Amino acid sequence: MFHHFYDDKHIKGQGAISQNELAQIIEYYQRHHQILPALEWLEKAIQNNLHENEVCLTFDDALLCQYEVALPVLEAFDLSAFWFVYSSVITGGTEKLEIYRKFRTSCFEGIDAFYEDFFGTVNTSPYASQVVTALNEFSPATYLSQFPFYTEADRRFRFVRDHALGVDAYNHILDQMIDAQNIDLNDFSSDLWMNDRQVIALHEKNHVIGLHSHTHPTALAALPAKDQWTEYKTNYDTLNEILNATPETVSHPCNSYNHETIQILQDLKIKIGFRSNMAEPHSSLLEFPREDHANIMGKIAA
Ligand SMILES: [Zn+2]
């Protein structure tokens, strides 16, 4: 499972890898696994006919850095992949999650300077006391323990973002921090996502384009079923219209799903889905495990 890549144009954010590192991962995997073309892996997965050493590559979030940095590497290896696209951003919209990521990467000396500004802004906001109360429940040893590469500061930040604040309050805090730096958002977000033509180009090159919700909520499973339905139905309709092909695959944004999500995906006739960790053996065709590239980098370095 891949997310961010960097080169001279795309900044080196947390967890981002280079073309060389992607090539190393592919070569490392090819020693003991067979990386199948995406369409072939999909066909075998649907028929429950995958060998244990047959794997595939996946890219989440429709990021322009994937298209510009990773795709040429895949082509050099003659490989194809799954690309999970949240559709709001390829139809001219923006999404705050990614803008905030670039903001915290490119507008601060380091991630700790960002965390300092973040907690400073929280402490002088109307949310200060609810955050203090929530942090009593925070346990860095157990929170997100399935993601071993997060630091304690990463866990604390994510806990406050997702559990103490919630989406609206978090966005309010970040918007305030961005305002304080006089950033032009149109210009700032112009190199973040692919456009619809690039997604079509991937589809035409026999890559597989799959669902990833419309607006990428960080906690989709916390939404009422009708809002989850709107997320996935809009995503489905948008990709169907752009590609003239019905999506058959999904990856769960931020690994967030529940039994209602699964029901919705079954109603949409989605055949194969991916989690974003290896924590549990997969229990259905909509919950294939995935290894984060950060863990693979760790294994290569070891
Ligand atoms: Zn995602």
Automatic annotation (TrEMBL):
Domain of life assignment: Bacteria
Key word Signal present: yes
The UniProt record lists the keyword Cytoplasm: no
Gene Ontology MF, one: hydrolase activity, acting on carbon-nitrogen (but not peptide) bonds
InterPro entries named among the record's database cross-references: Glyco_hydro/deAcase_b/a-brl, NODB_dom, Polysacch_Deacetylase
Domain NodB homology: 175-271
GO CC list: extracellular region
One GO term (biological process): carbohydrate metabolic process
CDD domains (UniProt xref): CE4_NodB_like_5s_6s
Keywords for the protein's UniProt record, in alphabetical order: Signal
Protein localization: Secreted
Protein name stated in the entry: Polysaccharide deacetylase
Species: Gimesia algae
